[in-house]
Design a protein that fits this description.
Distance between the termini: 40 Å
Low-confidence stretches: 1-8
CATH superfamily of the largest domain: Butyryl-CoA Dehydrogenase, subunit A, domain 3
Oligomer: single chain
Order of helices and strands: HHHHHHHHEEEEEEHHHHHHH
Number of strands: 6
CATH architecture of the largest domain: Up-down Bundle
Number of helices: 15
Length: 397
């Protein structure tokens, strides 16, 4: 398709349809993506051509500046083809949203000469920034930089030497060539995300490529001065949590479809003349798995709609809804994992094959649920604290 056409389509249904068109290609490249431990270049090229990396990118820089509901639906549909590709798409989309929290000069650094530029990130303040004339010298080690092999820029969190209060933790925008991948992502679940570590040794970062972590997390960075639409007023912490959930319902949907398609003609082991699709136990398993996946989708839709609603109002999202979004996101991805676990066990010995769609989804969903921001117990604790009138116990809200 022509690039101009790719960059003007903003209708949700059209963008989801574009994602769906890529599913066969993504499925063809699943094994290569997992084997190479990074998203297949053909997948990246196809998503770029379809404009999917520009979904949350500012319109002033050639982006689509869509909304969070479209984001979650597109990412989920991509996961029906490849979970690792979906994960990378989801985080790179939200990082382009986060980049819009920086001032105009930093945004121009990213996009002015390359509207297709992509941004990776590790936001946890793991490094150290030393103030110098005109900026900072940044050093440190940052693991879990998903998709870093396919990005021109990376956002890195660090503590500022000598600073106190909100100035003590900042996010820095760095060219990816200054933050080489250590090629150390060797895992089972989401093995194709290329979530390698990066290391910096005394890299200079000019002042305009730095914002306070508190401003980034509150969605009130200097970039709001040039923001034209409501998208960049979205509550940042809820948006960042939502960004790592879209893979789960898509992976679960693919596993469910695979399970149902393989049922006809399958006997129940060690039973006389009993077919699996005629067995009451199977009916219960399918019914429960389907319901869990549907519940997950409804919860994530509510989160996305809440974020969009309060952004459109131009008002701060209330604390209770912020806490609820964390609980909803964690509960949703756990429902997807539990649904696929039911189907995985019900698949019998053949489900153990590395080529099994259900087995792969099971691994990927365990990986999603192990992300620190999606730990169910943590997020329920935060929500419960707020419901009881206590402090949430976290800045990530």
């Amino acid at each position: 398709m022509a690039e101009q056409d790719a960059m003007t389509v903003t209708d949700r249904a059209a963008l989801v349809a574009r994602a769906e068109e890529l599913v066969p290609l993504l499925r063809e490249n699943v094994e290569a993506t997992h084997r190479e431990r990074r998203v297949a270049q053909a997948n990246v090229a196809a998503m770029s051509e379809a404009g999917l990396f520009r979904l949350l990118q500012p319109r002033r820089w050639g982006g689509l500046e869509s909304d969070m509901r479209t984001h979650i639906e597109v990412v989920s549909r991509i996961a029906e083809g490849c979970s690792s590709t979906s994960w990378v798409l989801g985080v790179l989309q939200i990082h382009s949203w986060l980049a819009a929290q920086f001032g105009e000069e930093a945004q121009a650094d990213i996009y002015a000469d390359n509207p297709d530029a992509r941004v990776a990130a590790v936001l946890t303040p793991r490094g150290t920034a030393t103030p110098v004339e005109g900026g900072f010298v940044l050093s440190g080690f940052w693991p879990f930089a998903s998709g870093c092999d396919h990005c021109e820029w990376i956002l890195l969190g660090a503590r500022v030497e000598g600073a106190t209060g909100p100035d003590a933790e900042c996010v820095f925008l760095v060219p990816s060539e200054d933050a080489p991948s250590l090629d150390d992502w060797n895992v089972g679940g989401l093995g194709g995300t290329g979530s390698h570590s990066v290391r910096l040794e005394e890299v200079f970062v000019p002042t305009h490529r730095c914002i306070r972590f508190a401003d980034a997390l509150s969605g009130k960075g200097p970039g709001l001065a040039i923001a034209e639409g409501p998208l960049y007023r979205s509550a940042a912490a809820p948006a960042l949590v939502l960004a790592v959930t879209g893979t789960a319902p898509g992976a679960a949907e693919t596993a469910f479809r695979s399970f149902v398609e393989r049922l006809p003609g399958r006997p129940v082991a060690y039973m006389d003349d009993l077919q699996q699709d005629d067995w009451t136990a199977t009916h219960l398993q399918v019914g429960e798995a389907r319901t869990r996946i549907d519940v997950a989708k409804l919860l994530l839709a509510r989160v996305a709609d809440d974020i969009d609603e309060w952004a459109n109002k131009g008002e701060d999202m209330p604390l209770e809804i912020r806490a609820r979004t964390r609980a909803d996101c964690a509960w949703a991805v756990r429902q997807c994992m539990d649904a696929v676990e039911i189907l995985y066990i019900a698949s019998g010995g053949s489900g153990l094959a590395n080529s099994s769609v259900i087995q792969r989804a099971q691994r990927d969903l365990h990986a999603v649920n192990m992300h620190g921001i999606l730990m169910l117990e943590t997020n329920l604790d935060v929500y419960g604290r707020v419901l009881l009138g206590k402090t949430p116990g976290t800045k990530a809200i």
